[in-house]
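[job 0412] stage=fold_complex status=start
inputs:
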Amino acid sequence: MTEWLENQLPKMVLAPSFIAVLVFVYGFIGWTAWVSLTRSKLLPKYELKGFVQYDKLFASPRWDTAFGNLFTFGILFIVIAMVLGLVLAIMLDQKIRVEGAIRTIYLYPMALSMIVTGTAWKWILNPGLGIEATVRGWGFENFSFDWVVNPDFAIYTIVIAAVWQSSGFVMALFLAGLRSVDEEIIKAAQVDGIPTWRIYSSIIIPSMAPIFLSAFIVLAHLAIKSFDLVIALTGGGPGYSTDLPATYMYAMAFSRGDIGQAASSAMVMMAVVFTIVVPYLYSELRAKNHG
Amino acid sequence: MARSVTTQRKITNTVIAWFVGFLICFPILWILVLSFKTEADAIKTPIEVLRATWTFENYGIVQERSDYGKHFSNSVIIAFGSTVLGLLIAIPAAWSMAFVPSKRTKDILLWMLSTKMLPAVGVLYPIYLLFIQLGLLDSRMGLVLVLMLINLPIIVWMLYTYFREIPGEILEAARMDGATLREEVLFILTPMAIPGIASTLLLNVILAWNEAFWTLNLTAAKAAPLTAFIASYSSPEGLFYAKLSAASTMAIAPILILGWFSQKQLVRGLTFGAVK
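[job 0412] stage=fold_complex status=done
writing structure:
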């Protein structure tokens, strides 16, 4: 009996976590998927009606904006955060003094809630205060920086704040990658007189490919989940010009009382995440089987 | 990989690094500055703001108007409650994965972690309805449960990476000496696991402290933690920068201080163990 218990115990203690994740995530996603196929309005209905919600969703100009924003925002955010993160990492890799403190400072934005740091960003981006007033104070009277209230540009302010929040994090990832490159190879290259930029572009950066991939995955899922950024900075406005899928869903579920729409938009987001995450997981698993 | 560089380059780099650090910190510093200015001074140009007289009045007003203490204690209870509950469930799971791995262990782990990538909106509404039925809406208990479940995959993952660093040979040696499972866990595993558990605790307290999606959607006045409280302050009917900044400062101060004194854990935690 005791022996049986010792054999089964590892599985038994794993079970609560396993079941919690299974029910909580997949059970509820299943519910959402079901409701997205009904005509639910203020209250959920469970009678299946086919893809009416999706037809309505794809016909909605607001969803169009939100979905388009996801790509504008996502691509800019990921590219800029990765480039800045890499530059910062290379810089920090040059034997900086008190590196530990600097690393922590760079990571602070990630450790703080955007809802809170959004306060400062609102001030900085506010036309009449912040950047606009400062540059005008320097004598450039005609300078204007009204992105946050301009429907065509407001989404870029979200990009700025998101990049600010995450580049320190990307830096930390890349720095770990730089440190894991075999030093002997670098030394050999230096002895051969290869210029530093070539060492980086031909040896160091290519060997960091796995880190680029994981940084990309983390940033991509942050982009798709972005919610508090928009809530903190623009609330989706002006109009609905800075809506992202998550805020669209939120608006549908809680202010419009349209659960069916909310559910179908959630499912589309889910599909986007899956197309990014599944290939990654697949490659991770394959790497494991080979190693 | 650190390259050898000349002293002059080193100084230049350090100066640039600190300057960038200042730029990154600027929004946070600015919140601090604004919180000590009057409402009228807070909407002047940056130089005028800096020159204006310093005052503590915002902190008094924020406390008076909105009972900061209540929201603060909500935040503490929700952040620590969900983390401790999560640890209780995750420690055995991570222990089992790290020390008694099966063929499926890595698959299960990756699968658990993958759920963290899914957008929370997918499960928001069913939980919302469930909360209405169970009377958990706007209750600290409800948030503790939800945040525990949301962060459970991360807790399991982090603990797993820490537990795996504990050499298995020690456990085997103990087993050879006739230690029972209970003794093994109590006298060998626990003391060696405590630093990892502490780091996981720290990271998850921070994550739960910052959580905005669930707190905004599932709380109103009663159980609202600091994030929801700040969001309510920045209402559309006119911004009160100075008061908002005072409230914000009080909301982030614990994390800034906690983070500074546990730099290593913070770095490792936020990068999910990639940086040690």
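[job 0412] summary: Chain B has two domains: 7-58, 66-232.
[job 0412] exit 0
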